[in-house]
Design a protein that fits this description.
By secondary structure, the chain is mainly α. It is built from 3 helices and 2 strands, in the order αββαα. The protein has a domain of 35 residues. It is elongated. The protein starts with a helix and ends in a 5-residue tail after the last helix.
Length: 88
């Protein structure tokens, strides 16, 4: 029992010792913000993705692309419908 409380106190002491280090790291300015680093936006955009897919030979067929677009549109409409205030 004494060993357990001694271990617990050691863990608590380590946590308190690490707090100043963790808070100092939180105050520093990040080297990058979000998806931008090295001065470039690294968020994929549709035209770049489509070119990459075509170059790799994995681009969806026009029929599959239409099906995917329709599915996304349906999900978007469901979200709008579910998030709109209910009228009584």
């Amino acid at each position: 029992m004494f060993g357990m409380s001694l271990r617990f106190m050691a863990v608590v002491a380590l946590v308190f010792a690490a707090l100043p280090v963790l808070s100092a790291a939180a105050d520093t300015v990040p080297r990058r913000e979000g998806n931008i680093w090295g001065g470039r936006n690294h968020e994929p955009v549709a035209p770049d993705v489509q070119r990459s897919e075509q170059a790799a030979g994995v681009a969806p067929s026009p029929r599959q692309q239409k099906s995917d677009d329709d599915e996304v549109e349906n999900i978007y409409r469901q979200v709008l419908r579910n998030s709109s205030p209910q009228r009584h």
